[in-house]
Task: structure prediction
Amino acid sequence: MTTERAEEEEEEEEKDEEQVVTPWDVSAGADGKIDYQKLVKEFGCAEIDERLIERIEKCTNTKAHPFLRRGLFFAHRELDEIVTAYEKGEKFYLYTGRGPSSESLHLGHLVPFQFTKWLQDAFKVPLVIQLTDDEKFLWKDLQLEDCRRLAKENAKDIVACGFNPETTFIFADASYMCPSFYTNMMKIAKCVTFNQAKGIFGFTGDSNIGQIGFPPVQAAPSFPDCFPHMFGMNKKSLKCLIPCAIDQDPYFRMTRDVAHRIGGYKPALVESRFFPALKGESGKMSASDPTSAIYVTDTAKEIKSKINKHAFSGGGATVEEQREKGANLDVDVPWKWLNFFLEDDEKLKEIGEKYGSGEMLTGEIKQILVDVLTPMVEQHQKRRALVTDEVLDLYFNSQKKPKVFLDLFREYEEREFCKWEKKASTSDSDDLCKALEQKLQLEGATENEEGCAIGAPKSEDWLKIRKARMQKDAPTEGSKSALKKAAKIKAAAEKKAAEKAAKAAAKAAKEAAANEAA
Ligand code: TYM
Result:
């Protein structure tokens, strides 16, 4: 073999051993591991540090989710800015998704959804969930109708994670596509050249043109005006935070690059490591190999059998070896899985110490994992059984009443209104609606001094809704106080007008008297 050829082959081999992380392919490097530090560098995101976690705990008054405490959600893009804005009273919305390619989810898919549920509860913000039935149609050997059906099946599993139906909107692309969504897609698409798309996503001459055109579909929901029924028509009404595993980063790198050009905010991201495959490589699990994953539909017997037969162990080959050397926790799948799903920090620490030192055997840690996963999956199945078509409708309803969103943002609006009221005490406004209109004109619909979204959706539509509500609805706690304020403004304006009239009358009387005397 010539030296040149040998060098070429060596190069080829090195390439083969490089880790690959794209939205469609995840495989570890030569050592069987994903190098997350390297990914952070390559992708240009940042690592989540202790300080940021503390700030999240403080501003939400909630203990951080184990995924966050344990560094499983480890990377971010501008999560710190979302937190800074939240500390000042701004809200945001969450956006996540699923590509429906299989009948049910595996445990790895639960990771972003469980975390998103925690974020939704902790920050009390709305959430949109995209089901990319179109993406799976374009990439997999599936009919579009199959993908639509799978989207519905997967949605049941997603709903079973416990999302709040009042503040969560789930949509499948092929059914939801609406004018404002399409408009966003087109604006994004025009900003990205084919060469850039090739660089980001690795498209080749063999990629079908549906695939090449797909990225704007996943990018668009990062802008609130894709959901006019929830957030109004202002692209900057709310900032967006996207929880996902790091494989989805390329979509949002692209989105962030074009955001300003289409007049929106860059979406922020919070990204996780991969929940490893049962057989051990640190990549994603494969839907086509059922023994590589545990599904949320698996029975207790299947869970036990899969873990005992297929879970890759870092323990010693024999009992003696394990007792002598202990387990290699870096590669042990039961240990890694417990890190995701065993909530008790103390217990986890104890297991790590005992198993790592050889005091605990492989069979024992596998049994602990079976005991953790079986009730978790069974409870999921029970909740899923309650998700009827009617329940699904609650989440898919694009006529969702915006009332809940007004309620979500009420506290903030009320505070803003008080500020405005002070500023506007000289105004002649005699009713709240006029006052609100003026406030919007004075301060801009959604912008504070730094040009940041202040959280409340306030397009023209919203103003109308609010007007109607204040005039007709039975006053709620919030609107009662707003009405009181309106009455105060009116009384002040009346008093001022009366004083002005009295002054004018006095002046006229004085002038008349002077004229008479003359
Ligand atoms: P999909 O269906 O491949 O995966 C759904 C979500 O699960 C994450 N994920 C994992 N997380 C941890 N460990 C694993 N082993 C694992 N496997 C998958 C994915 O990162 C994803 O968050 N194109 C997307 C659907 C989508 C989306 C989004 C995802 C549309 N819009 C916005 C996130 C955010 C997809 O096919 O995901």
Remarks:
- Residues 11-15, 426-430, 442-462, 472-479 have pLDDT under 50 and may be disordered.
